[in-house]
Each structure stands twice: as C-alpha cells, then as structure tokens.
Amino acid sequence: MSTTTIVSAPGKASSGSANQIVVRSPQFHQAEWRYTVTYNVAGIQVNPQEDSIGGKNKFVHLALQHTLNLVSEIHSVAHVQGRLVHGLDIAAVGDNDFYSQRAQLEASGLPRTTKSLSQITPFCHNGVKLTDVHKTGMGSSAALITYNRDRFCHLEGDGRRLAHNAAQFVHCFAQGKVGSGFDVSSAVFGSQIYRRFSPAVLDPLMKGEFATGTLKSVLNSNAWDYSFRPIQLPPLTRLVLADVEAGSDTPSLVGKVLKWRGHEDSCETAKDLWTQIDESNQSLARQLDALSQSYVQNKDVYEQTIRQLASLPAQERIRNLMRRMGDLAGVEIEPKQQTHLLDQSIEQAGVVGGGVPGAGGYDAIWLLICNPPNLPDEQQPLRRVESVWSTFDESNVTPLLAQESVAKGARVVQLDEIPGLREAVQRR
C-alpha cells in the first residue's frame, strides 16, 4: 500500500542560487527538472527552465507551483523566499515495487519470486527514461504529488489534513478530472476504509485561474466531507500483489462503468449492485476487525485457526459481484485472462480471496493469504501461489514485495533509517 516518506535532509540546490529548484529522479535516465521561482503581484510563479533534460513534467511543476503559493498564503511570500534563499534540491525516489522489475530479474538470471526480488538493490536504477518505465499501478504519481506537497507542510494534526487536501487538488488538476482520491488518501493517512470527498469542493480551483487567498480558503474549507477509518489486516495474514504483463494496456474502464450506471435503463440495476458491493466490502472489513480482536483475546487459538484456514478454499462474493458489474456494463473489469489467473491462484489452499485492483483490467491482481507460523516452506500459501504464477502461460506474472503498510501514511525519516535510501538520493 502506498506510503510516502519525507526525507529530512537539507534543501540546497546544486547551483547554490536563490529561488532555483532542482527535482531529480535518480532511478531514471535524463530525469531532472529545473525551475526558477519568481514573485509578482499575481503570486508566486514556478517557471520551468529550458535546459531541463527531463522535458516537461506537469505533476512536479503543478505540485511546486501550488504548494509554494499555498505556503505563501498561510505564512507569507517572505517565508517562501527565506526557504529558497539557497535554492532547493529535491530527490524523488520510489520503492522498487512502483516499477516492474522483470528486466532486473532476467538480467540476473533469477526466477520471478519474492525471494529473488529481495536481492535487488533498493531504489534501483531502472535503466530507462521515466517515460519508458513499466509501472505496476501502485500509485506512484499520487505518492509523488503527496511527497512534493508534504515536503513543505507539517504532518501533525490539521497539517496532515491540509497536506491531504492540497495533494488531492494537485493530483486531480494534473489529471484533468476528480478521481476516487483513494491513492492520495492512502499515501497521506495509510491503510483505511475510505469515502471520497464531494467533487464540488474543488470547483473553484479546477479551472486553474483563481485569486490570491483562494487556495487556502478552499483547501481549509469545512466542505471537505471525505472520511476514513484506519484498518489493518489480521495477524498472520498477508496481502500479495502481482504485476501482470498481458501484452496490452488497461482500457479506460471507469468512464464506461459510470455511463452505464447513469443510464436510465440500467441505473436501478446499477444502484442495487453498487449497494451489494458496498455491503460486501463493509462485511469484509468487519470480519477483518473481528479476526484481529480474536488474536488479542486468545493468540494460541487464533494461530490454530489460521493453520486450519491455510488448507481451506477461498470465499469470492465480492469478486463475483465486481465481475457481474463488468458484464452488465460491457467492460472487462476482470478480463478472461485475469479470471484464469485468479481462478488458479485462489484454488490454492490458504488463499482467503483475491481480485483485480482499482478499476480492473489487465495489469495486476491481488490476493489475501494466510501466513501461518511454523509451517514448512513448501506448504506456505505464498509458495503455492508463486508456483502457479511461475508456470502460468497466458501472461508473465511477477510478484511484488509490497505488504500492508503499518506506517500510517506519510512520515518524516532520516536518510539512514531506510536501507539504500542514502545511496539512491546521492546517485547522480
């Protein structure tokens, strides 16, 4: 699950010049963007420099532009000028799971397993330009936006809420639409049950032209009606994700589903199905909470139960409902190729359930599996699943190392707290 780390390190641009910002991504070729910050009656302007070898990057540009203006509205323009008196050097690095590591594994002659992935250098160089990298769909753009916002915002109390609201705005503005917002929310707050904010709250900002003071007013408004409740997986269970190379891009599914949902001939059916999916999701959340509570009450009995579950088949109500929605809407929320992969994976003992994440499509699957203690390695559900993936012949399937985040979202760390981070940040 997406977690953003704010590295506590001196901000100093490589040129040493005031009001110069350098953003670099040392995991890619030619991934450096340079900006000059100017000040006028219209506010703070962040201007891309023509000599930036990375070309245009609207996510970075918009994050800097609106963040600096928000900081100036909260504090003052002089405060921003003081922070940029020596310029700023920002190194943005992402966990290896954000990007496909198939090429790294093949170059090293390693099988596609979690054990092999753990041997790859943390924050490794991907050997390509940013525009050519194969992403795994883990929310890298949302994490980047959140990082660039939180770099200037306090993460305690209302500061974290403001960082969330600001990141949601920039992410929506960069994409040109208001999405679910879950990827940004999880980057800020961590694992959660989430309900999106009303899109209308961003109406005053989405056209891109607004008066000084509007940013602070909108982003601090009480009209932000999203809600989230922290949640965690029960002990001795594990979330497993896979990067699927299917040979085609994930289609644009959300718009088609929403069109079907709003059509007069299908809106009642859609409403009923939507309700069933929501109730099933809420029921699953309650069951996960109950399992966690059972562990607290009697650890020994809980561990015995997990061992028993490791030999039982999965429950698939939510997956069935999502697949039915795709059939009714005429879109491939779970394409046949993914169905075959999921069916074979979920047949394995100890798999609680699974599906296609996000809006669906071809590029990933998720499984919730038991992870019982003191079980021979070959009997562990993860090993059984990896065996299926390694022999699946309809697409190349690579596991990810990602597990549930327990860090509660965005956080500030020192460079040496995370293995390999200092080396990655210092890479040129």
State mean pLDDT (0 to 100 scale).
87
| Percent in strands | 5-15%
Low-pLDDT stretches: 5-14, 247-251
Number of helix segments? 16
Helical percent range? 40-55%
Order of helices and strands: EEEEHHEHHHHHEHHEEHHHHHEEHEEH
The 3D shape can be described as: globular
For the record, give the distance between the C-alpha atoms at the N and C termini, rounded to a whole number: 28 Å
Give a short account of the largest sheet.
Answer: 4 strands, mixed
Computed CA radius of gyration, to the nearest angstrom: 23 Å
DSSP strand count: 12
Q: Oligomerization state of this entry?
A: single chain
> What would you call the structural class?
alpha+beta
Strand order of the largest sheet: 4-3-2-5
Salient structural properties:
alpha+beta, 4-stranded antiparallel sheet
